[in-house]
From TrEMBL:
This is Dihydrolipoyl dehydrogenase. Belongs to the class-I pyridine nucleotide-disulfide oxidoreductase family. One of its GO terms (molecular function) is dihydrolipoyl dehydrogenase (NADH) activity. Keywords: Disulfide bond, FAD, Flavoprotein, NAD, Nucleotide-binding, Oxidoreductase, Redox-active center. Residues 6-329 form the FAD/NAD(P)-binding domain. It comes from Phenylobacterium soli. The active site is at residue 446.
Length: 467
């Protein structure tokens, strides 16, 4: 017997689910969020964005103390305290997940602890840790169950020697040799963390390039930068087997194009070949929703094929990013509340938080060429930016792609320090459908790295001024 009828029951308390829940509370809807992990925040806060950025920040400072500091006249002899580095990461994560609990209370959202299962139209069963089952009645159900790491046959993740991203965020020691399978965002971010802390890192990638989806010229520059830091890349290679012992792992690696297999020894292996939607035990069959062959729930403006059942975030098509899940969550709830919810998927930015960082929004050159769209390019290197010069951080560039006829900005690609903080400027400009000349004629503060954003836009117009 159902006790309360909710306007909306959200299954999953990650960036999709918690933002949906908070927005529902703000709009006066009676909302519950079902989350089976002991804390709110989902993958992002618990084992994703936040802990990885905590380790990236700390390890970047460690590497700087071991390197660039001396050039600036600061002499130190840094010593790694891995336990403390992990502890400060865990403390930050706890503070963040508690923050979501606070926001739930503030917005009158019920956090129903346990595993949620759809048990028919308008019905969600929640099994608590003690095995007790509660039934929630819901006018609307929102699936926000996120994703999990993809597996590779023959490479069994044991979280001891062969780890996924969750294991790689909590290794008990700095590996001597770390092999990363997959040169995607997780592999390169977490590979960077352990490289900076002293590990020898080899990245094995199936394709003949790193970071598919990134503008190819930017990806090449990125690979060069990481190689300079000591990361070794084996491109066009596939791992076909792994043998684990107490001391480490022996991997068999074969060229994709055919040829002799080789073995790679590692004390730890990070498997990071992508993520897949997570819908295990969700009871989708009870409402007739069938994920596609890749496990993705297809939606039409967040509506699944079942009336009153919606889906958002990593479990639906689109980039598996926290800010995209957040956009989905807010728009979905606004639609449930009878308002106009909207997400512009062409303007979801991407960032790789390595050093240098890579950030982009909109189309790549490859996409524009494939679409037959005529475009102009403006590119500005950080070597010509005065702030970058005085900081001795001149690696990278900003590249702006604009429509050849209308000058509308179609894509922006940046590599260099702090570009994660600068891409938002172009997100706003592009949301207002700015021409590159609009950016080129906007005064930017001097001396800042952001001047490179303007100079690249001036480059499209053909009047870049060197700093
Ligand atoms: P999730 O965050 O996965 O949340 C889903 C939640 O649902 C989970 O808490 C799960 O426990 C819960 N759940 C699942 N099934 C049930 C059930 N039946 N009942 C109850 N609860 C259930 N993205 C970025 O934008 N920036 C980054 O810097 C970034 N870094 C990342 C680093 C790593 C290492 C990883 C792994 C991911 C990173 N991501 C990043 C991706 C980001 O974490 C995801 O895109 C985002 O968390 C997706 O949000 P979501 O709400 O769809 O799902
Ligand atoms: P990914 O899709 O970014 O990269 C996976 C890589 O593995 C690809 O280059 C792919 O070609 C390669 N690959 C696939 N199968 C392989 C095989 N058998 N052998 C060798 N290589 C293989 O996936 P990743 O890095 O696991 O990250 C998953 C998702 O998490 C990202 O796509 C992103 O959406 C999200 N994420 C976002 C972050 C951010 O925004 N900064 C940080 C970390 C994760």
């Amino acid at each position: 017997m159902a006790e309360t009828t909710y306007d909306v029951v959200i299954i999953g308390g990650g960036p999709g689910g918690y933002n949906a829940a908070i927005r529902a509370g703000q709009l006066g809807l009676k909302a519950a969020c079902v989350e089976k992990r002991g804390t709110l925040g989902g993958t992002c806060l618990n084992v994703g964005c936040m802990p990885s950025k905590a380790l990236l920040h700390a390890s970047e400072l460690f590497a700087a103390a071991n390197g660039e500091f001396a050039k600036l006249g600061i002499e130190v002899s840094p010593k790694l305290n891995l336990g403390q580095m992990m502890a400060q990461k865990d403390e930050s994560v706890t503070a963040l997940t508690k923050g979501i609990e606070f926001l739930f209370k503030k917005n009158k959202v019920d956090w129903v602890k346990g595993a949620g299962k759809i048990a028919g139209p308008g019905k969600v069963e929640v099994t608590g840790e003690d095995g007790k089952v509660t039934t929630l009645a819901a006018k609307n159900i929102v699936i926000a169950t996120g994703s999990e790491p993809s597996r590779l046959p023959g490479v069994e993740v044991d979280q001891q020697r062969i780890v996924d991203s969750t294991g790689a965020l909590a290794l008990p020691e700095v590996p001597k040799k770390l092999v990363v399978i997959g040169a995607g965002i997780i592999g390169l971010e977490l590979g960077s963390v352990w490289r900076r802390l002293g590990a020898e890192v080899t990245v094995v990638e199936f394709l003949d390039r790193i970071t598919p989806g990134m503008d190819a010229e930017t990806a090449k520059t990125f690979q060069r930068a990481l190689t300079k830091q000591g990361m070794v890349f084996k491109l066009g290679a596939k791992v076909t087997g792994a043998k684990t012992s107490k001391k480490g792992v022996t991997l068999t690696v074969e060229p994709v194009a055919g040829g002799a297999a080789e073995t790679l020894e590692a004390d730890y292996v990070l498997l990071a070949i992508g993520r897949r939607p997570y819908t295990e035990g969700l009871g989708l069959e009870s409402v007739g929703v069938t994920p596609n062959a890749r496990g993705v729930i297809e939606t039409d403006h967040f509506k699944t094929s079942a009336p009153g059942v919606w889906a958002i975030g990593d479990v639906i098509p689109g980039p598996m990013l926290a800010h995209k899940a957040e956009e989905d969550g807010v728009a979905c709830i606004e639609m449930i509340a009878g308002k106009w919810g909207h997400v512009d998927y062409d303007l979801v930015p991407s960032v790789v938080y390595t050093s240098p960082e890579v950030a982009w929004v909109g189309k790549t050159e490859e996409e524009l060429k494939a679409a037959g769209r005529a475009y102009k390019t403006g590119k500005f290197p950080f070597t010509a930016n005065s702030r970058a010069k005085i900081n001795h951080e001149t690696e990278g560039f900003v590249k702006v792609l604009a429509d050849a006829a209308t000058d509308e900005v179609l894509g922006v690609h940046m590599i260099g320090p702090s570009v994660s903080e600068m891409i938002g400027e172009y997100c706003v400009a592009m949301a207002f459908r700015a021409a590159s000349e609009d950016v080129a004629r906007t005064c930017h503060p001097h001396p800042t790295r952001s001047e490179a954003l303007r100079q690249a836009a001036m480059g499209v117009e053909g009047w870049t001024m060197q700093a």
